[in-house]
């Protein structure tokens, strides 16, 4: 029984590859009406390739040897028309099949992007952005190289191969059988090399994903790398990943490089066999010179499709490796799908309730345990506590970035799991400590959550956020183009634009994550004034690292180890002389030094 292991593994790989191919072919279904035309052109092109050697061989026996010059000229004219038709058919098949494949691949890219956008945050907690980009770009490009550019040739050569086999067997059965003796050897050789190539190409797809992830991470952290003298270490780590990718590709190329000469050798062997036996038949009168000539031409044509198909087959191994990675991503569960009976969230009044909420990012470890809180409409709730206590988790559950492990989160007494995510988040605003701006105009960044807002509405939001005056001082005002992550705006200016973004959607529930940190004093005053306007009349949750910013909160919740250990107003908690009072005293002492 020991020997069954590799066989079972090989069968599983073959089954997986067939499943991957079937799934890929499902993407052809939208083009069912176009496929018959493409296949007809493929068959026409193949037929013109097959008929040429037959006519040339026939002309030797029936025209040239008999001195029929007129017939020969007419035959040459017919051949010219046939080959012109073949060129037109091949051009048409390449264009049509290529067009179908490019649209198919665009559909595949769209599916990947939609999937990435719809995946829960828990997926991104364990995935690297660079590897996801590699699947969307590198893996799809590998599929494009294998299928998008050569699929038309592969189909044409398949039909040509079938036609050539039929023609050879019809002209002379003995020579036809002799020529096909090498086919089993070719199939065996191709299968052997394909297995080796498939294993190596899987490694190349994985290593390029690792390399892309490392590259994306290091480019985004160049400043930190230089500040902490990590540049040389980053270079060494990149060298290791780059070397792994290089070695995997070298091994894959070595397999491919050995494969083509093997096919050439079999081609030469078959040609020699046909020439030797065909010559013998011609000398003995069992075959004509024209038949032997036609066979030699057919043998050359016979191996050309096999070479192309074999090369395509080995190249397809890289594509299958890429498709496996793509489909594994598409198969990731969207854990936070809307419930089948989910309804639209009605206009929010602003009451937020946590009822015995428990939550863990992994089933083994809870981050929150038995959390209960009620925020009435218009109240400001401050969340304080050490890093890792669970403050950000509370915020994530309100937005339903994650689902609770136990209990319920309700807004206006409606469980957030019973409404659509879009209708819920449409009515919740968020201003983070490090807000992300995008490449585009200032106006587009403000309207990020309200794409249909008018320019007048954008200006009003900017005025309420104390950023209108700054924007109008820019060279193109609201039409000024920003770079990646909002460059060249300062941290404070990005924060004001983010506040304007929140103002524009006019949320009933607002989330703030220490929006005044890491900015200068003058800008902080503008931000504080803008936030005060934004908070007015709205239910708000404020993650506070500086306790001086939450003295006016209606409730202060002190969170430690996933539990609310203290709650009350700032004055009440200071009077209790508990955890909050100690934190506040420490910050006051640090500020006075």
From TrEMBL:
The keyword Protease does not apply. Keywords: ATP-binding, Membrane, Nucleotide-binding, Transmembrane, Transmembrane helix, Transport. Residues 352-586 form the ABC transporter domain. GO terms for molecular function: ABC-type oligopeptide transporter activity; ATP binding; ATP hydrolysis activity. One of its GO terms (cellular component) is plasma membrane. It is a multi-pass membrane protein. Its main location: membrane. Residues 37-318 form the ABC transmembrane type-1 domain. This is ABC transporter ATP-binding protein. It comes from Stenomitos frigidus ULC18.
